[in-house]
Amino acid sequence: MQITVYEVGPRDGLQNEGAVISTEHKIELIEKLAQSGVRHIEATSLVHPKWIPQLSDATQVLAGISRLDGVHYSVLTPNLTGLQRITANQVDEIAIFMSASEAHNFKNINKTREDTYGVLAEVAEEAQKMGLRVRGYISTVFGCPYEGEVSLTESMRVVEKLLAMGVYQLSIGDTIGVATPRQVHEVFATFDKEWGATWFAGHFHDTRGTGLANVVAALQHGISTFDSSIGGLGGCPYAPGAAGNISTEDVVYLLHGMGYDTGIDLDKLVEAGQFIQKILGRELPSKVLKTATG
Which residue range or ranges hold the Pyruvate carboxyltransferase domain (predicted)? Predict the structure, then answer.
């Protein structure tokens, strides 16, 4: 069975880094990931530079990538102003995002959920006119740093709204890494029954060490796309205490060991992890990367 590994490190991973990474190094990282066989890469974000200074070079990164055939490049896009910074030939799809919890949504986007829907609908409609696919992220489905538990009913309301905008897939996020397999079973069993598993991807953080266990739980409900970040980079600027995303190297090792096909060369993927680890000048959380570097 084929599983899609959706690489979010160049955006979701690097956005939480304090030291500025050069545009050239970002481009090199993206190209190394593509050369390893990763076929879905979120390259950067079009959020206003004052909010995420690390990604203020988004247009330069997109212009500098040597695109490989068969690789889909995506960019996080918060509003029409962001969308207007790119041309259709620079990316294959955009991602829109909001939270299942009201408090995190306001911290992250500075809007209520109700006010967010109209903005995202405009972005989705315009992107589709440009011939771009639209992916959606829903954060804090499994728990919120400000509200605590998030009801499944609230998450389902957000899912319904975003699916109506024409997204081809929704990435269901454990933003602060509180989920356990039991909760993952509950969420994806409900979503599968209501809409079908093919609409959804899993986006897990490894804050409490349950990330890979949650991948296995989601697989049991037909989820076949998982977001991950090279080296385990990441976190969330608006989720205090959130650790990095699950490591792409660890996810690929797990999936291959379970007999799934990802199309990714793990050795080349490790080389990409070693590259960004060297650039950052510190050891990254990836377990596979640690074994490879001794």
Answer: 3-270
